[in-house]
């Protein structure tokens, strides 16, 4: 196994008609490398993990909210054993809905029912499940998580970046995606189709302490930044005023930047920047414009 994998031929096991199923060959490589003694899959979908374990002679437990695999809820129900490898392949938010589509009626416990608008809820629940899974890993055992990125309305939801990283990170494997539904959609060159997933492998090194990295979302406000060049501040101010402004408006706007506060003569500094930097040009006396990026 290498850090980039691609399986154009899916291989045998599971059900390729079950949407979002994964390649048995990925699991054969993963288990072939780590040689686990007992494997658990808490969201086994069409049973790919079960079939690979049967083929390789590995003890296993596989469950799913899908009644065909126990109607078991990864968020609440008891994990039936102790394992040295857990393969966790959750839904990618509600890109593919499982309950009500692939099986049964819509089930509020199904992670794929959480709308993308409640993405932070999805991430929270994912983290809770990861934490639970670690309790049933033996020391030295591994949690391997297969996740993808989602893009909607021009915004990327990178699950692997946003989810908690629990345990000792050991490996990131990029897996090329083949034969997915989006392969048949014509995006007319307006969209870079996502055709990879991540297999993230975390190890449990300690019985009591679980390393945990959580990404925190915040924002930078250029107006309150202390360190910003005058040239950037003037450009941002002019941009903020719609790309064109007279000097009094620009003077007022620039004074609202923390980085310009200490200057003894900010108005003279604004004029100096406007007259010497090529991204600005005067369209009339005292009226300045921002050059369009060619
Ligand atoms: C991406 S699929 C797994 C596909 C599987 N690896 C395969 O090859 O077929 C995700 C699965 O998570 C299940 N699921 C969603 N929410 C769940 C929950 N709370 N507990 C257990 N399973 C859940 C869905 O029923 C679905 O089968």
Report a brief summary of the structure.
This protein is an alpha/beta fold.
Topology of helices and strands:
Blueprint: E1 4-5, H1 24-34, E2 38-41, H2 48-56, E3 59-62, E4 83-88, H3 119-135, E5 137-152, E6 155-158, H4 159-162, E7 165-166, E8 168-176, E9 196-203, E10 212-213, H5 230-240, E11 244-246, H6 247-254, H7 266-276, E12 280-284, E13 287-290
Parallel strand pairs: 1-8, 2-3, 2-4, 4-5
Antiparallel strand pairs: 5-6, 5-9, 7-10, 8-9, 11-13, 12-13
Helix pairs in contact: 1-2, 6-7
The structure holds S-adenosylmethionine.
S-adenosylmethionine is lined by residues 14, 18, 20-22, 42-46, 48, 64-66, 72-75, 89-91, 98, 109-112.
Walk me through this protein's architecture.
The protein is an alpha/beta fold and 294 residues long. The chain folds into two domains: 4-213, Rossmann fold (3-Layer(aba) Sandwich), CATH 3.40.50; 230-290, no CATH class. The protein contains seven helices and 13 strands. The strands form three sheets. Strands 1, 2, 3, 4, 5, 6, 8 and 9 form an eight-stranded mixed sheet that branches. Strands 11-13-12 form a three-stranded antiparallel sheet. Strands 7-10 form a two-stranded antiparallel ribbon. α1 (24-34) packs across α2. The radius of gyration is 26 Å and the shape is elongated. It starts with a strand and ends with a strand. The mean pLDDT is 94. The site of S-adenosylmethionine has 26 residues, from loops.
């Amino acid at each position: 196994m290498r850090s980039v994998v691609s399986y154009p031929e899916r291989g045998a096991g599971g059900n390729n008609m079950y949407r979002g199923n994964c390649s048995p060959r990925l699991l054969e490589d993963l288990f072939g490398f780590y040689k686990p003694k007992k494997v658990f899959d808490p969201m086994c979908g069409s049973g790919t993990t079960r079939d690979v374990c049967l083929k390789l002679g590995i003890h296993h437990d596989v469950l799913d909210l899908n009644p065909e695999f126990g109607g078991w809820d990864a968020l609440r129900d008891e994990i039936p054993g102790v394992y040295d490898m857990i393969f966790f392949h959750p839904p990618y938010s509600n890109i593919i809905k499982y309950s009500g589509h692939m099986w049964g009626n819509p089930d509020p416990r199904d992670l794929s029912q959480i709308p993308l608008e409640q993405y932070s809820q999805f991430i929270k629940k994912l983290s809770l499940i990861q934490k639970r899974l670690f309790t049933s890993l033996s020391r030295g055992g591994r949690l391997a998580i297969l996740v993808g990125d989602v893009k909607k309305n021009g915004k990327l939801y990178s699950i692997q970046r946003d989810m908690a990283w629990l345990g000792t990170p050991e490996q990131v494997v990029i897996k090329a995606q083949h034969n997915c539904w989006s392969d048949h959609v014509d995006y007319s060159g307006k969209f870079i189709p996502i055709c990879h997933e991540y297999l993230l492998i975390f190890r449990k090194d300690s019985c009591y302490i679980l390393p945990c990295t959580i990404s925190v979302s915040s924002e930078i406000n250029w107006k309150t930044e202390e360190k910003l060049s005058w040239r950037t501040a003037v450009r941002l101010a002019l941009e903020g005023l719609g790309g064109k402004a007279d000097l009094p408006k620009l003077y007022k706007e620039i004074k609202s930047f923390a980085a310009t506060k200490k200057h003894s003569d900010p108005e003279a500094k604004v004029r100096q920047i406007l007259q010497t930097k090529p991204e600005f040009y005067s369209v009339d006396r005292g009226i300045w414009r921002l050059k369009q990026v060619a």
